[in-house]
Amino acid sequence: MLAGLSAVSVTTFASPAAARPALREVQEIDGEMLWIAMAIEISDKCDRIGARTVKGWMQLNDLRNLARDMGYSNKDVLSYVRSDAEKARIRKLGENYMKSQGLDPNNPADLCRLGDAEMARNSRIGVLLRAK
Please, which domain of life does this record's source organism belong to (predicted)? Predict the structure, then answer.
């Protein structure tokens, strides 16, 4: 009987952790990761636009803390951030966003146009960018 109770206790305590959605499904985190990734891509590919690096690092730190507050471990966060599959998925989302704006994600000039527009709008992407 005690062995059965132990199994129930372990199952009960393990359930909340198992019930957490994957970080990719947590919009407050995944959506912000998209905007950060897009700002990095723009600053890497457009010679006249730079990244607001400190602001970006602060946002990443805030996202990590939010994930930890939601019960995710540092290992969970690192697995999400370093995952090649997640990077490819975020890249595809960014490409789709650019296409929705009538821009070609493979054209550096279009990345510059997007960066200019996002900075002018002071958007989630734009606040992470600066003119060089």
Answer: Bacteria
> What total number of domains does the chain contain?
1
Q: Strand pairing partners for 33?
A: none
Structure pTM? 0.82
Domain that holds residue 75: 23-131
For residue 116, being part of any structural domain is answered with: yes
CA nearest neighbour of 43 among 29, 33, 53: 53
Domain assignment present for residue 76? The answer is yes
CA distance 100 to 50: 23
By CB neighbour count within 10 A (0-12 exposed, 13-18 middle, 19+ buried), where does 13 fall?
A: exposed
Instruction: Answer whether residue 105 is part of any domain.
Output: yes
User: 78-97, pLDDT tens digit by residue?
Assistant: 999 999 999 999 999 999 99
Within-domain flag for 121: yes
pLDDT in tens, 46-57: 999 999 999 999
